[in-house]
Amino acid sequence: xxxxxxxxxxxxxxxxxxxxxxxxxxxxxxxxxxxxxxxxxxxxxxxxxxxxxxxxxxxxxxxxxxxxxxxxxxxxxxxxxxxxxxxxxxxxxxxxxxxxxxxxxxxxxxxxxxxxxxxxxxxxxxxxxxxxxxxxxxxxxxxxxxxxxxxxxxxxxxxxxxxxxxxxxxxxxxxxxxxxxxxxxxxxxxxxxxxxxxxxxxxxxxxxxxxxxxxxxxxxxx
Length: 222
Hints:
Mean pLDDT: 91
Number of domains: 2
Low-confidence stretches: none
Largest sheet: 3 strands, mixed
Number of helices: 7
């Protein structure tokens, strides 16, 4: 039997095996910590920082990568934590295009869902993102790529590498121009992508969508 550690999360006592992350420990007792970059099937990387929690340290800790420690007292919903998440959501939304292809088709854009959860009704801090300055890639016959909607969470990269083992997707560029790339930065349709769809399945935004539904609005299906 593995050694256990005991801690409290939002005042609830929990005992978990050594090495368990705070996110997994919270989920085990029914506490939902919002995430964008994390997906249980993928290796956690702590990129988006939406899952930060208060562990009593100088800085907030990313719950998806922070292991539980004996005697920890964790708050997932303090005023500071919630303010941090709202500000981060506003910054992520500022770069989004006017509409999400995922929201308008399958209706499961995780970024927009979190925005609704935090009462953010409009894209704040507009910066001209509607013009898609980061560009699109429609070279694939089945997958549409909207770089403007990408939040660089790396879920598509990890899904391609860790689940399908195709090793096609990576990052390229610097600063604001950083984006996902295929092979040695070629167009998706010209890369070694086998169109398995794993990247679309794990993408939390409208950055990667199936062309079969891209442009088809939910209200047209009803």
